[in-house]
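Work Package 3 (structural annotation) set out to generate three-dimensional models for the target panel prioritized at the project kickoff. During this period the team completed the workflow that converts sequence records into discrete structure tokens, so that structures can be stored uniformly alongside our sequence database. As a representative example, we reproduce one entry of 172 residues exactly as it appears in the project archive.
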Amino acid sequence: MKKQLLLTPLLVLAIACGNRESATDTAATLDTAATDSATHPASPGGEALVPDVVSGTTVLVMLSDGSIAVREQSIPPGPAILTVENRGTGVHNLFVEGEGISRAAGDNIDAGGSSTVDVNFKAGNYVMYCPILDHRTKGEEVSVTVGTGAPPTDTSGTVGTSTKAPTPSPTT
């Protein structure tokens, strides 16, 4: 009986250790297999994971001191990437408003710099302007109509660029 009591814990320990080695071997095999076919950029031997992106329209928006120009003559509805270039001498930014969009192009853009902003345009009217200080009242605003084939116009009717300062909105 004493032998049986001593052998039972040893047998359980031996089985547990055997299972532990199997589990370790299996984990090592899984880790190696996961690493070999990994798509995470930080995984050794893996490939960079590139998300599926719906291609869209690329729209070049040029910011200058006193004006904003949009190169595209017409912008279709759907996904778009706005490439914003600061061609002025000061700091600028771009803010887009209209048809469910109200967003900036990220951080302010230094002279000579650029930024991008992804938007999903619906058919309708949009206003793009520089939100820095009083830049908007100095003419850094352009109205864009999406989906009608009409070119972007500013408040003076100039296609693709703003040259006239809009009437400032009253403040309360």
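Strands lie at 57-64, 67-70, 78-86, 95-98, 101-104, 114-121, 124-129, 141-146.
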